[in-house]
Design brief:
Elements: E1 4-15, E2 19-30, H1 33-50, E3 56-71, E4 77-95, H2 98-108, E5 114-122, H3 128-148, E6 152-160, E7 172-174, H4 178-185, E8 193-205
Antiparallel strand pairs: 1-8, 2-4, 2-5, 3-4, 5-7, 6-8
Helix pairs in contact: 2-4
Amino acid sequence: MEREIRVCATGTHRALPDCIRATVRLAGLKDTCEAAAEEFKDSFEFLLKETKQFVFKTADFSINTHYADERDGNNVWRKKFAGFMFSHTLVCEFPFDTSALGAFVFALGRCKCVDSFGFDYAVTDEDGAYDAAVKKAVKKANVLAAAAGVKLGDIASISFNASPRNIFSPRMCKTNDRAAVMTASVDVAPRELSFSESVEMVWELK
């Protein structure tokens, strides 16, 4: 039976954000589906014109019937057809720059169909956690081998389970929320972000 040692370790990487990930939702309500589609087209083209230095990708799009709640003559709530609502969610990523963020938010304020927006900070290079985990595992393996009076041989295997990243949603702000717009436009210094990853390494023993 081959002798081996199996070591698990978790590494943490901390770094200041170097990019901003923004989410923008366009929305509008019209009497007909055709009018809603036309309103969407016009608003989307206007948004691209006002923010031409940014690149957007579509995350979600729909045009659906919309019903409003109202009370009837018997004071009972019922649904009333209100029209067709379009909803278009876009995402945009750009390098961390508070002046660019301020320009981005200011441009959104000029687009009447922007219902809400949100953003969060991110780190583009998240692999530092793997490097830290491997170094920690190697150090631990050497300590255990020395304590046991054996020597490490070749690495037999390395395995890891990637942790989900950036799965949280940014806080969405209504475009008429002037406090949010002002906050997004000021020069802020975000805190460091941290990422952790675990690895399992197996060595043959000499």
